[in-house]
Amino acid sequence: MQISFACQASPDVVANEDFVLASERFAVVLDGATDSGLPNGCEHGVAWLAGRLGGQLAATLTEQPGLPLREVLRQGIAATRALHPQCDPDNPNSPASTVALAREYDGALDFLVLADSPVVVQSHSGELLELFDDRTAHLPAYDRVSVSRLRNTDQGFWVASTRPEAADRALTATLSTGRVRRFALVTDGVSRLVERYGWSWPRLLDLLEQQGPAAAVRAVRAAELAEEPGTRKGKRHDDATALFGLM
Ligand SMILES: [Zn+2]
């Protein structure tokens, strides 16, 4: 398995809250949730959380190479929670992250998604598998108090923060290694090429394969800048991460 990636902070921010890490057998892509400004009981912040959780997930994937991915995530969240005992783990606004994982083990490729960092896998026959957790797109309200109330509830959405049981809500898929031709793990800063700018997943996979992940990030920035200012509510740019796997 050949893995390549690009991870670029939004041009509008100081700290990149995306995090990416890969070996020859696994890949971890995280997107730290932007701080809402509500008290979160943590002195570390979102970029810290994403980096520590990524490190814990990689440690578990290395030490227990065949562990089911939901269990990897459960252990990763628990271990990360233990890294900041001085903070309040029960604060519902504690820093949080999406999670996308890929792992090769024993003739199979396993994938996991929690929250809106999608995974797309294409087989040799051209068939596409999308792991897309769109629960954040269907909330009854988006003001920061409502989002805080809905966070890590079955009425709302789940993210990786301080509650290991979030792992039970992750989407997973397993395919035999021989079936898979290529795959991508992306944060929503890159999946917006598909969700917002009309690209198909195969077009994005082709770009990743032929020109590399940095070309996908450049395509996102070009699409964002081509939009009339004020077309969208919220931030024009976001941190953008694209990871590509070729079998
Ligand atoms: Zn903390």
- What is the CATH third-level topology name? Phosphatase 2c, domain 1
Contiguous runs where pLDDT drops below 50 for at least 5 residues: none
Distance between the termini: 5 Å
Name given to the CATH architecture = 4-Layer Sandwich
Which small compounds were modeled alongside the protein?
Answer: zinc ion
The coarse overall form would be globular
What is the count of structural domains? Answer: 1
CATH class: Alpha Beta
Helix content: 25-40%
How many runs of DSSP E, i.e. beta strands? Answer: 10
Q: What is the radius of gyration?
A: 17 Å
Structure classification:
alpha+beta
Continuous helix count? 6
SSE pattern: EEEHHEEEEHEEHHHE
Tell me what you see in this structure.
The chain is an alpha+beta fold. It has a single domain, classed as PPM-type phosphatase domain (Phosphatase 2c, domain 1), CATH 3.60.40.10. The protein has six helices and ten strands, in the order βββααββββαββαααβ. The protein has a five-stranded antiparallel β-sheet. The protein has a five-stranded antiparallel β-sheet with strand order 2-3-4-5-8, with helices on one face. Helix 5 (201-211) crosses helix 6 (213-226). The longest helix is centred in the first third of the chain and has 18 residues, at 46-63. The chain is globular. The N and C termini lie close together (5 Å).
